[in-house]
Structures are given as structure tokens and as C-alpha cells.
Amino acid sequence: GGQWFPELDPNVQLAVTWGETVGGAALLFGFLTRPAALGVAIIQVGAIILVTGKRDFIDINTLPAHLQPMALTFHVGYEYNVALIAMCLALCFSGAGRLSLDFLLFERRRQSVSSAVAPSGNQPLGHQ
Length: 128
Prior knowledge:
Blueprint: H1 10-29, H2 33-50, E1 59-62, E2 72-75, H3 79-94, H4 101-115
Antiparallel strand pairs: 1-2
Helix pairs in contact: 1-2, 2-3
């Protein structure tokens, strides 16, 4: 991992690599969705600041005609990072859905606790 951005400390590179891997897996399964999305968004802001922000938003250059007529070369700008940040912020605000580990582990428990409360909401069932 120490060669993809030599100016960055190898320990920071390792932390970014693990943050993207673990954060991405957590988002895939919907586990700790809000913190994982926030972590991935922070990593993407760092990527814009350190790497892709120096380029255009969408960096497209046309090659000279003598090399390859009408061919385009695409260099990644910071559009991908911005898209990931937008998606992560949406997950930070909305949270995980029903097809997530967050729902299975936390929401179901919360719903079962709230269903044990009497319809009046004052006392638990069995204490009436």
C-alpha cells in the first residue's frame, strides 16, 4: 500500500485502505451504516484535497488527430469522489433500510420494547 501515493505516510495509507475496505463492507451489509458512511465520506474529502482536487471536475482531453482520430482519454477528476460523498451523506441522514443488519439488530429490538408498552403508553403490560 505504500506506493499508490508516496507523499502520504504509509501508516495513513494503511488506515485509509482499511477504512475504505471495512467501511465499504459495513455499507454493503448495512451494519453501523451512519458511522460507516461518515467515515467513507471523510476519506473521500481527503482524496479530493490530496489527489483529485488538482484536476478538473471531469477531466477529458482529446488526443491529437495524428495519434488517434476522435479518441478521448479520460482522467479521473473529483466527480467520483463527490458522487460517493453525496451517497454517503444520504445514508448518514436516512440510515439503513429494512434489508440491513442495522434493522435486524437494532430496530427489531427497539420495536419489540415499544410493543411491550401499554396502548396508553403509561405502563408496561402486566402492570395494569
